[in-house]
Hints:
Elements: E1 5-18, E2 24-38, E3 41-54, H1 59-62, E4 70-81, E5 87-98
Parallel strand pairs: 3-5
Antiparallel strand pairs: 1-2, 1-4, 2-3, 4-5
Amino acid sequence: MNNHLVLSGEIKRSRQFESPSGIKHTVLTLEHKSQRYEAELLRNVYCLIQVILSGPRFISVTDELKAGMQVDVEGFLSLQQGRNGQNRLVLHAENVELKT
Length: 100
C-alpha cells in the first residue's frame, strides 16, 4: 500500500532550525489551490499546510526554498502537537521539486 501524498503549491513562509539532537529542519508553509471534480461537480480545493523537511538530504535545496516559489512535495501526513497542545496535520517531505 502506497501512503505517499503529492501536493503542489506556493511557499508562503520558510524557516530553518536545528533540533537539540543536531538535525537540521526546514518548515515551509505551503498554500495549495486547485479545482477538482467531485460527484460530477467542480469544486474549489484549498489548503494551507506545514511541510517539514528534515535531515541532510535536503540541505542542498533548503536555501533555495523562498516565499513565492512553486513546489511539488511528496511525503506522508502525520499529526504533530503544537506548543498550545493542539494537534495539527503536517506533511513530512520525502522529495521536493522546484517548479519552473
